[in-house]
Design goal:
Shape: globular
Helix content: 40-55%
CATH superfamily: Ribonuclease H-like superfamily/Ribonuclease H
Strand order of the largest sheet: 6-5-4-3-7-8
Order of helices and strands: EEEEEHHEHEHEHHHH
Number of strands: 8
């Protein structure tokens, strides 16, 4: 692919995206061009919390951004101080410059749908959080949701699957450092989204001989991996008393 042209919600970007990747000994073919997606929100409850900022973009095979769009929403509710401390957006700021939440939800959903319909994989770190919260927001605002988004690439699921026994945390910042991916302005939607995409590409390069070359097959495998990872984490949390024995973490992916 010498040239790629993408139109997303009225935006058009044309840029060379590097040499064709044939999947024989090199990185998987899906790394040629990837979508990236991240939300910053009012909290971590996918059923109740709201979108504050969002980023959707495209990266080429080198990890360079070739298209990007950012949103800030007025979520229609107070942004807790704890959330503001994470992403820096206060209730007053969101109300002053944010677009109506329904417009942001519709535009983000439609932008992602256009990428997925074109067969472009979308990378999101801890994808089940972002896609689940977006789906609940869509239902809340009467927007047609992404019911079965595919292909999705989740570097958190991949890192746990391909490097199971590495000790330490698996936060975006820690994993970015492990794969030598620069992350400036952590918890800023565009920075997190781009870093996640570059981590996915780094994983694809490191585990090229083990990773399926096609995004659709990788998506399918991640469904099973996410379920198994949730079951393993459930067992561990029960063993240390963090969960009740009759509690089970939700391993559905990419929407729970």
């Amino acid at each position: 692919m010498s040239e790629a042209t993408h139109t997303v919600r009225g935006m058009k970007a044309t840029k060379g995206v590097g040499p064709e990747v044939d999947g024989h000994g090199g990185p998987p073919t899906w790394t040629r061009v990837i979508g990236v997606f991240d939300l910053e929100t009012t909290g971590v409850d996918v059923a109740e919390d709201r979108i504050v900022t969002a980023h959707v973009g495209l990266l080429d095979a080198s990890g360079s951004a070739i298209l990007a769009r950012d949103w800030i929403a007025d979520p229609g509710v107070e942004i807790p101080a704890a959330a503001t401390a994470v992403h820096g957006i206060s209730t007053e700021h969101a109300r002053a410059i944010g677009a109506p939440a329904c417009d942001v939800v519709e535009q983000v959903t439609d932008t992602l749908r256009s990428l997925l319909d074109a067969g472009i994989p979308v990378v999101a770190y801890n994808a089940a959080f972002d896609f689940s919260l977006l789906a609940r927001e869509a239902s809340r605002h009467g927007v047609l949701p992404l019911r079965n988004p595919s292909p999705v690439i989740d570097p958190l699921v991949l890192d746990k699957a391909y490097d199971r026994f590495r000790r330490g945390k698996r936060t975006l910042a820690v994993v970015a450092e492990h794969y030598a991916v620069r992350l400036d302005d952590a918890h800023e939607a565009s920075a997190d989204a781009v870093a996640a995409g570059r981590i996915a590409q780094a994983l694809a390069g490191r585990f090229a001989g083990l990773m399926p070359p096609e995004a659709d097959e990788l998506h399918t495998r991640q469904i099973a991996w996410a379920r198994a990872q949730a079951a393993s984490l459930t067992e561990y949390f029960i063993s240390i008393g963090r969960l009740d024995p009759d509690t089970e973490l939700d391993g559905r992916w990419p929407i729970r």
